[in-house]
Amino acid sequence: MRSGERNKTPKSVTERTDLIFSAFEGDGRPLTFSDIARRTGLPKTTVYRTVIQLADLDWLRRTDRGFTLSDRIFRLVSAVPARIELREAALPFMQDLFEATHETVHLAVRNGAHALYVEKIVGRRQVTALTKVGGLMPLHCTAVGKVLLANADAETQATVLAANLVSHTSATIHTASAMRAELQKIRDAGTAYDREEAARGLVCVACPITSPEGAVIGAISVAGGVQRFRPDQVSTAVRTAAFGINRSLTMRALRADSTASEN
């Protein structure tokens, strides 16, 4: 339970629901009924009843290990104005990448310890349904995720590296020391690769997208099958698309400033 709330028992459904959603902040792992009760301080019977209702309404998702926030939550979050603007700025360049490669193009932002997929153009030769708009993937095993993690604040990096870096394949980087070295290479090169680290047979290349102030706010990538797709051969195209999105965001900001000054 958050500071200031420990000494009072939430009375309304809204307060209880707020506490339960807040329990999922942090590591992103599935939570059991006991985990949620411990984090919120709510009675287990209240937790059970509320969590079941939220799952039935598709706000929470049941897994073998407990409950997670559902894709419905993240679709709602991805609709906030800043992300709408990012998506609008990125779509023309994503389409150009798709036309040039015929492979799957992703746009993602960071959400805690995960990459949240804001937009996706499915390749003509799709090899996996691993990702979807509104879906989440861990930062440490995806190209967009590693770009976002490499440019995240020190606290976020420390939190992710201190957690269990789950091996999704034998190629997944699963030690903190190896991941630190990988993140440094990504910062130096401005490009990240997924070499079958999230799923066998799938490779990917990603580049960062920056705000007009220079902060990394997203990532764009191209993914394809390992037998036919060579990420290094399209890295320049991905980088060019990222630069184009950066320029578009800057021009939008300048137009907004100009309009504001005229009013």
UniProtKB/TrEMBL annotation:
GO terms for molecular function: DNA binding; DNA-binding transcription factor activity. Keywords: DNA-binding, Transcription, Transcription regulation. Residues 72-251 form the IclR-ED domain. GO terms for biological process: negative regulation of DNA-templated transcription. SMART domains: HTH_ICLR. Pfam families: HTH_IclR (PF09339), IclR_C (PF01614). InterPro entries: GAF-like_dom_sf, HTH_MetabolicPath_Reg, Tscrpt_reg_IclR_C, Tscrpt_reg_IclR_N, WH-like_DNA-bd_sf, WH_DNA-bd_sf. This is IclR family transcriptional regulator.
